[in-house]
Model the fold of this input.
Amino acid sequence: MANQPKVALAPVTSRHPIHDLNNAMDLLSQARHLADFVQSITLSPRPDEGLHLLPGQLSGLFYVMQDLMDRIEKASSLLGDVREGTLDERR
Done:
């Protein structure tokens, strides 16, 4: 294996829309699972009970929610790219 020549890969200049759609679907699926997790830890058994978090738990919740928003934003961007590419092809 050490004697095999190295092959340089050509840079990717364009992506296939299906690739972007699959990535967007994966990101949205991951976001859904994160939302399910957040819902499971934040729902109180009784309506009159508040949610009490320690500082470390609160910052953890903040980072999970930020990650959730980032995944949704990235998926939205990918879908927008696909939409724009589709519109460009129709012109």
About this structure: Residues 27 and 73 are 9 Å apart (CA to CA).
